[in-house]
Amino acid sequence: MSAWATRGRQPGGLSLRLGGTLVALLVAAAALSLVWTPFPVNAIDVPHKLLEPSLTHWLGTDPLGRDLASEILAGARISILVGVIAVGIGLLFGVSLGLIAAAAKGIVEEAIMKLCDFTFAFPALLLAILLTATYGAGVVNAIVAIGVSNVPIFARLTRATANGALAREYVLAARAAGRGPLAIAIDHVLPNIAPALIVQATIQFAIAILAEAALSYLGLGAQPPQMSWGRLLADAQAWMYVAPRLAVYPGLAVALSVLGLNLLGDGLRDALDPKLRARS
Q1: Would you state the pLDDT for residue 85?
Q2: Sign of the torsion formed by the C-alpha atoms of 231, 222, 227 and 49
Q3: What is the pLDDT of residue 245?
Q4: How confident is the model at residue 4, as a pLDDT?
Q5: SS3 of 262, please?
């Protein structure tokens, strides 16, 4: 029996395989669009507008004659970019704040948790509107808004899991050996809470893709000539009764990407759970 089939029998194996395949396709589409697309993404060809799918234009063309398959491939780049940077912001600041809160206790922990509660009052959409009103619409402001909204989520998760790790015997032994709080956090706590952070990161990645699509749909995200699945959906709403496929294909791209990341997160959670591994 192959290793791939064996992994499918393990906890979360099916979700891990399906999710990993869909995420790999998303990454492959984004990488491919960097070097090749069937047609130039922003090449306007009005005489050939709203063509049906064919061997030349795999998914047809939009109202300006642009190749829809090329636009969807290019839109994957924005989704990957926003997801990676936004989740990176959440991990960098959220994990740092969570570790500080777990290690410091007292008034420091209380202050960090209150700051997280305050940040929860400004979801990504509202924060993006505030940034847009001040600095203008764009991908950078969308990334900042989504990234900031991720910080309290990772901070709370890190604090909760780190509190459990700090009570374990190996941390007590490290303290007795004279290790400082920073060394304990990096060498002992962080590696043991990493599985929970990885699973949460995949979930937040999916949420970031949805948030970016929503912001671009509202005109707060990617701006022309940048291509985004949310922008394609916004442009398609005026043509829903003429060419509904203009909304179906980018909507399907968003749905499959989010589904893949959620399945990957579920599979990783089950695969990294020591209780489930012990039962398998």
Answers
A1: 96
A2: positive
A3: 95
A4: 44
A5: helix
Rounded Cα distance between 96 and 83, Å, is 20
Token pair in block for residue 276 = 């489930």
> CATH fold of 18-27+67-279, please?
MetI-like fold (1.10.3720)
Extract the residue ranges of the chain whose pLDDT is less than 50: 1-8
Three-state DSSP at 4 gives: helix
Cβ atoms within 10 A of the Cβ of 171, count?
18
Nearest to 258 by CA among 197, 198, 211, 195: 211
> 38 — alpha (psi -120 to 50), left (phi > 0) or beta?
alpha
Partner residues linked to 61 by β-bridges = 67
Bridge partners for 67 per DSSP: 61
Q: Would you call 67 helix, strand, or coil by DSSP? A: strand
pLDDT in tens, 3-40: 444 444 555 688 999 999 999 999 999 999 999 999 99
Q: Give me 223's structure tokens.
A: 């701006």
**pTM, full prediction:** 0.91
Residue with tokens 């959670």: 269
Q: What is the pLDDT of residue 11?
A: 55
